[in-house]
Amino acid sequence: MIRRVSIESLPRLCAGRDTAEQTWKRRPLWLAVQNVLAFTLDQMPAECRRGLEEQAKALQADYETVFPLLDRACEATCPWCPTPCCFVADARFDFKDMLFIHLARVPVPLGQPRGDGHAVCRYLGPSGCLLPRTSRPWICTWYLCPMQKQWFFTYDEAGYRQLGKATDSIKKQRKELELQYVRVLTPARE
Fold first, then answer.
1. Where are the domains of the chain?
2. How many other CB atoms sit within 10 Å of the CB of residue 81?
3. Bridge-partner residues for 124, per DSSP?
4. CA distance 24 to 26
5. What is the mean pLDDT of residues 115-119?
6. Which tens digits make up the pLDDT trace of 48-97?
7. Cβ neighbours of residue 44 under 8 Å, at least 6 residues apart?
C-alpha cells in the first residue's frame, strides 16, 4: 500500500517548487507556461479537448452573470477609493486562470499583473482595468474590498447574495476544470 503525503509535509529540498517562481512573474517563465499549456491542449485527443472547452464555455457563462453586479459596485466605489486594490494588491494568475483563458479562447494577457518590475498592476488604465473581465485573474473578480461590501449591504443585498452563490459555484467549476485537465493528461493505471 502506498502512503499518500501532502507536499507541505515533505522537506523543503524535496518539495520541488520555488514559491517565487511558481507565479511566473518573469517574462520567460510566463511564456514557457503559455507554450506548455498550449502544447498539451493541442496534443490531447479532440474529444477530450472539446469536453474541456465546453466546461470552459459553461464557466464563462457563469462568470458573465456576475460581471454586471461587479461593474456596478466598481463604478460606485473604485473612483473614490483612497487605496485602490490595483495599487496595493499582488493579484496573480494561477493555473486555473490560464487553463480557462486558453480553453475559452479569450485574450491571453502579456504577463502577471505585477510581474517584470511593475510596482502596481500593469493593466490599470485611467478608467480602470484594461483587460476584459474574462481575461483577468479570478481573484480580481471574486475579491470585494470593504468599501464594495459596504456598498452591497447598503444598496444591493440581493445582488450580494447572488454574487456569493455564483462565486461558490464558479470556484467549484474552476477546480473541476483543472481536475478534468489533469485526468485527461494522466494515463489510466491498469
1. 22-185
2. 15
3. 129
4. 6
5. 80
6. 999 999 999 999 999 999 999 999 999 999 998 888 899 888 899 999 99
7. 52, 184, 185
